[in-house]
Structure formats: structure tokens, C-alpha cells
Write a structure and sequence with these properties.
The protein is of the alpha/beta class. 41% of the residues lie in helices and 19% in strands. Helix 1 links the parallel strand 1 and strand 2. The protein binds uridine-5'-diphosphate-4-deoxy-4-fluoro-alpha-D-galactose.
């Protein structure tokens, strides 16, 4: 089955990986992006690109008019969100506008053009301080920051709109995403990185002199926080399966994307140290970090037949190779 997929935010880190996997699976891809955090060189050469902002209804309408007059989109994928937790605390108005109003406009345009299927990127941040350290989709959602709130609000908006207009949604709640595509053409490349994997790799490669480990007094085996790390290409594979599921089954779904397995911050550092030494020091805890966050991925396995194919060593290895490549280029 060849689908026509519109990827909003397809020039960013996760969106660009979804585009690569969609194209590898033989689908037609149209990317819409405002290039605020993404960049043109992240867009696969076989995807069609339109500059457009999700909060500008006219932008979306113009693009849908051109594209849907030739062939309507089978599926819309949404990646066009702001996603930095501390920034969301500082700029709640901006986060609600971009993340929730953007989704509302996207849904309005979808209903105008009678497009039936949407794949939406949500986050483990909707669980807040998890009640169970292994989260399943039926756990209580109680975000502790505006970022998580905007994602939960968007999930609910999508569900109500899909119910009213007979549409289908596939909502994915991501855990800790890292790594780079095997081509090394795309990866997480931006200033002011905050995530543990790229920061550890940058330290190992000498791009940073040293890194901080935020607390070693948590109630975990070595005292540092435990997270569920997932390769960005596994996540992208799930999006391809999700899109096909919607079209084939005409049914909605909401699933976690994680690995059922957690690693501590020190275990991440140890994995990177298999390649290069890492200079780090233990500092105070960072605000808002739960001790342990792991996804149950039983539902993804059962419904989509999806489970991660790439392990932690592959995640780290691909990030190292990608960073070495962009270092040599600059
Ligand atoms: N950490 C450090 N030093 C650093 C950076 C991070 O010790 O320099 C620690 C953090 O304190 C945390 C762990 O590494 O314990 C992971 O932190 P990240 O910033 O890499 O990721 P988070 O778990 O905070 O958040 C990410 C996404 C969220 C998502 C969440 C789901 O940013 O959007 O994963 O698990 F909700």
C-alpha cells in the first residue's frame, strides 16, 4: 500500500527520521515546516517541501489546496511542537499557542479537506511523576510542566475532533529518543542541547570539556536517574506502521513507544566510555526529574507488532558517528 503522507515538522530531528523511513517504505511524502528549529538539509531529497507555519491557517490551506487537488493526503503526521521542558515553564503562552493552537488549526484544515487520519507525537511527560515506574497507557496522566500539559491538551483535542468527524488518530507517547539515521545524513544537531545522550557524546568527543550528572542520591541502583532510551529510527518505523494501521483498520490507537528497559545516567556514560573517556562530575539534582521512567511497550507490540530493533549500543554508536561526521564538516 502506497500512502500519501503530509509530515508537518518534517525538517526537525524526529520528523526528518520519519520522512526517511516513509520514503524507504515506498510512500509519497510532502513536508511542511517553518524551519524554526529544523533545517532544509534535514529533508530527504525525494520529499516535496513547502515552507509553512502550523499556526497560520492560510499557509496550510494553500498547501492542502495544491496537494489535495492532485491526490488527497491519506495521513497527516504532526511533529511541529516546541519541546524543551524548562523553556515551557518560562514561556507557557508561546507553548500553548504553538503546540495546542497549532494542532487545532491543523485539525480544522483536515476537516475542511476531509482528511481522515492523523499520527500525533506525544510524550511520556504526560504521565508527570509516574505512579508506577513502568508506565502503561492506562496510567493516570498528570503533567508537571507546560510542555506535558500542551501535549495532553492536544491529545484530548484530537480525540474529541476525531470522534465528532469520524476521523482516526494514532497517538504515540515517546520516551527518551536518541541516535541518528544509518545514512548519517540526519541526526540531532542544534545549539544548546539538553539531552543526556548527545551531551555525553559531545563530552567524549571533546566538544565539551566536562558534563554534569544531575544527582546521585535517587532511589535507584547507582543513585542516578533511570530512563527508557529508544533509537530515533525505531520511533520512525513505528510511525510508518501507525500510518498504515489507520488506513487499513479505520480505527484509532494510543501507545507508548519505549523498550520496557531502563538505563541509569551512569550506565549511559559507561556505554559511551566503551569508545572514549568522559569527563563528568556529580552535581545537584535537576528540578522536575522523576527517578525512574520506563515504558511498557506491550500494547505497541500487540497492536502494531512493533518493538525496538536497535539497542543502547547502537543508539550511542550512531550518535557518535553522526557527531564525528558533522564535526569534520564544520
Ligand atoms: N542528565 C544529566 N546531565 C545532563 C543532561 C541530563 O545528568 O547534562 C540527566 C537528567 O537529569 C535525567 C536524564 O539525564 O535524569 C535524562 O535527561 P534528558 O534531559 O536527556 O531527558 P528527560 O528524561 O528529562 O526528558 C526526555 C524528553 C521529554 C520526555 C522524556 C520522557 O525531553 O520530552 O524524555 O522520558 F518526556
Amino acid at each position: 500500500m502506497k500512502l500519501k503522507v503530509c509530515v508537518i515538522g518534517g525538517a526537525g530531528y524526529i520528523g526528518s527520521h520519519a520522512v526517511y523511513e516513509l520514503i524507504r517504505d515506498g510512500h509519497e511524502v510532502v513536508v511542511i515546516d517553518n524551519l524554526s528549529t529544523g533545517s532544509r538539509n534535514m529533508i530527504h531529497k525525494d520529499a516535496k517541501f513547502y515552507y509553512g507555519d502550523i499556526t497560520n491557517k492560510q499557509d496550510l490551506k494553500n498547501i492542502f489546496n495544491i496537494e489535495c487537488s492532485v491526490k488527497p493526503f491519506d495521513v497527516i503526521m504532526h511533529f511541529a511542537a516546541k519541546l524543551i521542558v524548562p523553556e515551557s515553564v518560562d514561556k507557557p503562552l508561546e507553548y500553548y499557542y504553538n503546540n495546542v493552537e497549532g494542532v487545532r488549526i491543523m485539525l480544522e484544515v483536515m476537516t475542511d479537506f476531509n482528511i481522515k487520519n492523523v499520527v500525533f507525537s506525544s510524550t511520556a511527560a504526560v504521565y508527570g511523576e509516574p505512579v508506577n515506574s513502568v508506565c502503561s497507557e492506562t496510567d493516570i496522566t498528570c503533567p508537571i510542566n507546560p510542555y506535558g500539559e500542551t501535549k495532553l491538551a492536544s491529545e484530548k483535542l484530537i480525540k474529541w475532533v476525531c470522534k465528532k468527524y469520524n476521523m482516526n488518530y494514532c497517538i504515540f507517547r515517546y520516551f527518551n529518543v536518541a541516535g541518528a539515521d544509518k545514512s548519517l545524513e540526519i541526526g540531532l544537531n542544534k545549539d544548546n542541547l539538553t539531552h543526556i545522550v548527545p551531551i555525553t557524546v559531545q563530552t567524549a568527543l571533546g566538544i565539551r570539556k566536562s558534563m554534569d550528572v544531575y544527582g546521585n542520591d535517587y532511589d535507584t541502583s547507582d543513585g542516578t536517574c533511570i530512563r527508557d532510551y529508544i533509537h530515533v529510527s525505531d520511533l520512525a518505523d513505528a510511525h510508518v506502521l501507525g500510518a498504515k494501521y489507520l488506513v487499513e483498520n479505520n480505527k484509532s490507537l494510543l501507545v507508548n513507544l519505549g523498550s520496557n528497559k531502563g538505563y541509569s545516567v551512569l550506565e549511559i556514560i559507561k556505554e559511551v566510555e566503551k569508545h572514549y573517556p568522559v569527563n563528568y562530575k556529580i552535581t545537584d539534582r535537576r528540578k522536575g526529574d522523576p527517578a525512574k521512567l520506563i515504558a511498557s511497550n506491550e500494547k505497541a507490540k500487540e497492536i502494531l507488532g512493533w518493538s525496538p530493533k536497535r539497542d543502547l549500543s547502537e543508539i550511542i554508536n550512531s550518535d557518535i558517528e553522526y557527531r564525528k561526521k558533522i564535526m569534520n564538516k564544520s
